[in-house]
């Protein structure tokens, strides 16, 4: 097999002796393999089955956790930073940089995974780490910042993020607001004049498939609060606090699609930072120049840890699938497990291969995902999946 770095186009005589080119563009297998590891495992399996085949490994993500890995695997450079974690403690993190564009992953700056085994504290969790990461990106010379909104631990409406960027939030006595969504109930004074002066000249793009507004039964607290440890009373208080916050910032922005993303970070970014929201996988594919990589591909392989009905709601594999379908290129899904039903879908995968096909025990499939994935990839019949010539 010849493994071709991402960014290389294959066409005609560049395609090698076997004349076959496969674009491998998976998301992570959450809990077992990163997206680059998935792509590598599939490529190794194809090598065993089809020596001489060309592959392009292009790990992708949908804006949630794993987004940074996808960009780092495709030419971006990691910059280690320190951020304020969701529990208001200093933690190590990273952003990705390339040609004036920075990528920030909320899961790595204000995320649930940063909390370890600590007891959930949904009322006090802060988004300040995202603001710290934005400052680091600005200091690195970025003039465009992509924020992947997913996996957050906070429900503070992005207040902590704004504070990190210089916005003053104070209570009625003039004291600086303490961290967490619950503190927004005490908010009386908002002063935007201290916002970092570089922000107006910086393009902020939110990568998210969340279309929820900030408030109400479909809002940040009600829908996502329980995932962060909030009980019914917590949800009621947080929604009330977010409503009060929006009344001080922008009630109009609170109703925008995506305002409820990442515990309301979407709201603060849209209302104060002038951000635009884009579907996560659409944005990632655009930034990774996916359409160019499709040129000359005979087959596309994508996948994620579990394929189910939600995979068809803006997730990475179906974004890749749709792009391949527009070029009439066959697409195969490789996953940890599949709950997809047999009903026809448009566009549909030409084949689905799951680790549980060869390791029915899910725990075994997760713990031994790397070798099993490589073995599974040998079952992909690349030649059988090639489009047939049109009849004359």
Automatic annotation (TrEMBL):
UniProt entry keywords in alphabetical sequence: Kinase, Transferase
InterPro entries registered for this protein in UniProt: Glyc_kinase_flavodox-like_fold, Glycerate_kinase, Glycerate_kinase_RE-like, Glycerate_kinase_sf
GO molecular function: glycerate kinase activity
Keyword presence, Kinase: yes
GO biological process, one term: organic acid phosphorylation
Family: Belongs to the glycerate kinase type-1 family.
Xref: PANTHER family: GLYCERATE KINASE
Protein name, entry field: Putative glycerate kinase
Protein's organism: Arthrobacter globiformis (strain ATCC 8010 / DSM 20124 / JCM 1332 / NBRC 12137 / NCIMB 8907 / NRRL B-2979 / 168)
